[in-house]
């Protein structure tokens, strides 16, 4: 069986010109990498911007594939990229269990190697490397949206790391 | 993702990583990296200069081995990460758990000081 995402019509934002739909399988991440290369060329994105998009995709998609689906069915995951004058907006849409990554428990302070956690850094990195984050649950789909400023001087993640 | 190793003076083990430490990269090197670094009392210099991408799964590999090394009385230093990779190490707090050095002599001296300590 196969579960396709029905994107809520009231959510369709104007300006989303590029999207990719993948299956909930780790093998699909190679397609995501190729798609990101195409977007890099199409939109002439700077290296720093591409690195942040790459990081968000590599943190969010494995989490969705691993944890979002209680069944053994195939599911679609949709990725959309909007290119604006000063920023890019990335959306990841899945029909897995409701999960708002931005209300998840924050990363505890890392005091020393022995007591530190080896897990749990993915969501923290998504927040650190993006300039705005949003989550919606619409018609049984999770919609995660992040905005990344194109300015190479953007250093929010550095500020966050020093906070 | 590529991995190889060499022995430097003072018995320091230099592990050279090259490529992307994403989920596929971790799958490619995790077993060998762990075997090299986490199964002995070693002083390990991980050369990150050819690592172009690092996600949290990659940091899990680094932290897991650094912890195992520490439990055996060994030590790990990350050497010369690229700027974007360094940003990830800093934002995630990993750079405060595993020392990061941009100078090879400084990296070696950190490890030697732990050998003597």
Q: What is the H/E string of chain A?
A: EEHHEEHEEH
How is the biggest beta sheet of chain A arranged?
Answer: 6 strands, mixed
Strand content of chain B: 25-35%
Largest interface: A-B, 30 and 26 residues
Q: Number of helical segments of chain B? A: 4
Question: Which features would summarize this protein structure in a list?
Answer:
heterodimer, A: 163 residues, alpha+beta, 6-stranded mixed sheet, globular, B: 117 residues, alpha/beta, 5-stranded mixed sheet, 4 helices
Give the SSE map.
The complex is a heterodimer of chains A (163) and B (117).
Chain A lengths: L1 E2 L14 E6 L5 H15 L3 H21 L6 E10 L3 E8 L27 H7 L3 E7 L2 E9 L6 H7 L1
Parallel strand pairs in A: 1-3
Antiparallel strand pairs in A: 2-3, 3-4, 4-6, 5-6
Helix pairs in contact in A: 1-2, 2-3
Chain B lengths: L1 E6 L5 E9 L1 H15 L5 E12 L1 H16 L3 E5 L3 H9 L8 E2 L2 H13 L1
